[in-house]
Amino acid sequence: MNLSVNFCMKCGSKICIREIDGVERYACSSCEFVFWGDYSIGVGGLVIKDHKVLLVKRAHNPGKGYWTNPGGYIEQLESIEETVVREVKEETGITAKVNRIVALRDLPRQVHNVYIAFAMDYVEGDPIPDGIESDEAGFYSLDEIEEMNVAPFTRWLVKIAFEDVECGLQKDEKTILKDSILFSI
After folding, report:
1. What pairs with residue 117 in β-bridges?
2. What topology does CATH give the domain 39-171?
3. What is the distance between the alpha carbons of residues 77 and 56, in angstroms, rounded to a whole number?
4. DSSP state of 150
């Protein structure tokens, strides 16, 4: 583990390595603070309306020019469901509600990334890109998606959202651990 914090976020004392629960961990030398790791939790929405799914065209890297489902990272005091509703609204202007979790991606690395994809029900609104993260937005059928530059992970998620309605949570076993491939957030 490559620690970028050298001092305790709680009391300011020096961070050291201590054995905690049988594992060597970065911890404060003076108080009970333990650095459990560096994590990011992302969410994505698969909003379905009239047998079409909501997609956005990414306006910046990573993945500029690829079509993906709207999504983003959770805020510290925000629930995961609130996050996906907010991200869909911010990126597309669409109001949607969570239906079910359809997939989970787990990428253990320097910053451990967990991504949770939700099937969502359309409530109201017209797709309008935010002009920051997305420069196009719209609802697209599976046939239309076949002809579009859709990120591979998003293609997989769309397939699950449409085809595996009763199969429960699906785990992504195929994602290649290359930053240039992960365009879903």
Report:
1. 44, 103
2. Nucleoside Triphosphate Pyrophosphohydrolase (3.90.79)
3. 26
4. B
Q: Is-contact 29 20, C-beta < 8 A?
A: no
In CATH, 1-36 is 2.20.70: yes
pTM of the shown model = 0.78
- What is the C-alpha end-to-end distance of the chain, expressed in Å? 24
Helix and strand numbers (H, E) in the chain are 3, 11
Q: What is the pLDDT along the chain (185 residues), one digit of tens a residue?
A: 555 678 998 999 999 999 998 999 999 999 999 988 888 999 999 999 999 999 999 999 888 999 999 999 999 889 999 999 999 999 999 999 999 898 888 888 888 899 999 999 999 999 999 999 999 999 999 999 999 999 999 999 999 888 766 555 555 666 654 443 443 33
- Report which of 145, 150, 127, 131 is spatially closest to residue 63, judged by C-alpha positions: 150
Three-state SS across 18-33?
EEECCEEEEEECCCCC
Residue intervals of the chain classified under CATH 3.90.79.10 are: 39-171
Q: Could you give the 3-state DSSP secondary structure of residue 5?
A: coil
* Separation CA 100–CA 118 (nearest Å): 6
Tell me which residues are annotated as active site: 136
CB 65 within 8 A of CB 59: no
Q: Would you say 153 and 78 are in contact if contact means Cβ atoms under 8 Å apart?
A: no
